[in-house]
Amino acid sequence: MTIPKRYELTDEQWNRIEPMFPAYRTGRPATIDNRTAFNGILWLMRSGAAWRDIPERYGHWKAIYSRFQRWSDSGLFLKMFEELSQDPDMENISLDSTSIRVHQKATGAKKTPSTQSSTNS
Q: How many domains does the chain have?
């Protein structure tokens, strides 16, 4: 088992989504595999960087961008979301029972006459 770098999928996560990717097409062989390209896309989305700033370990940014476009146009990400949302792992669920009272002025309460007279001075 390899330890994933920051923003990358674990082996278990990859094994779960790998069958959803389209089969290899004829033509010139790809220089990067689907997992590497997908990890590059994840890195980009999670970091908020520009396409040109994708680290070289993921391959050339244009290759990753074209793969992203192809997958996006084919509906792969929607299919992936629908499939994975059927079986949530509940890993990132956070329940909070605290309540915070908002100040009266933040809720649009009317000003009292004493406040109005002090602001007009």
A: 1
Domain range for 59: 8-18+33-87
Close Cβ partners of 52 (under 8 Å, ≥ 6 residues apart): 61
pLDDT of residue 68: 95
CA–CA distances in Å: residue 103 to residues 91, 96, 110, 119: 34, 20, 12, 19
pTM, full prediction:
0.66
**24-50 pLDDT per residue, tens:** 776 777 788 999 999 999 999 999 999
Q: Do 6 and 40 contact (CB within 8 A), yes or no?
A: no
Q: Are 59 and 33 in contact (CB under 8 A)?
A: no
